[in-house]
Amino acid sequence: MNESPHGVFVADGESCVPTPLARGPWGDFVSGQYVGGLLSRAIERCVNDTELHPTRVTIDLSGRALLAPVTVKTTVLRRGRRICVIDAAMVQEGAEVAHARAVYLRRGEQSPNQVWTSPIEMPPPPEIPTAPPAGSASHGLIYSADDPGVPGADLRSWESASQKFIWLTYLTPLVSGEKLTPLTRAVMVADSASAVANYGASGLHFINADYTVTLSRLPEGPSVGMAGLTHNSEAGIATASVALFDRRGPIGTAVTVGIANGGFRPTGARGAATST
């Protein structure tokens, strides 16, 4: 598989300039998946110890990033022997539009202890296409528990009250000329957890305020899957969770907090990103 030479952003000194691919499904703003991607990209550059593992990344979508150049500033809050904590702020026109905090933990010996976990079976991962759909940076296949053996590419097939699943494969670099890292891939996919967990019989009515990714290991390969776990909502506020997978099995979870919002325009699985 060869990634497209074109990116969602083009680097320009310390800034990243969005291309048309950066637009999200809620309006003329940068999609939350790419906001999270740029924040995690900057965070990774602060860590040069390969034994430190990115265990948690929280993306706070406190503002809306315009389709204009953005910069990301990072701060190492703690650099200890077993833990490293890093903050990142996305700035546009002098104002912060998004924020992230990452916790890295040092890898060590695995305990042989047996622990219960909720059993979840993902639909089989897709064959990797050679190129994304026109006007998109990713390829997605969606599944519903109503018909788990039949994948689709149109989010409107999720209009039911059943459990949802998706496999997302990014085929375009986040920043032109740069290869996607496993962490950045996982963080970008996790933005769509809101769609997986909050899509219902009449569509998607919640937009991400923030989302948190927890990873016991980094994903292997280009495809990351999600299975809806929980959805709870009242008075226009939603909390939801999904399980994250790669082709080898589960890798972690994502939790989202959303607020009621209209205007989502489904354009197929490539529109699964749910933030601006």
From TrEMBL:
Domain Acyl-CoA thioesterase-like N-terminal HotDog intervals: 24-104
Acyl-CoA thioesterase-like C-terminal domain mapped to chain residues: 125-255
InterPro entries xrefs: ACOT8-like_C, Acyl-CoA_hotdog, HotDog_dom_sf, TesB_ACOT8-like_N
Pfam families named among the record's database cross-references: 4HBT_3, 4HBT_3C
Name this polypeptide is given: Acyl-CoA thioesterase domain-containing protein
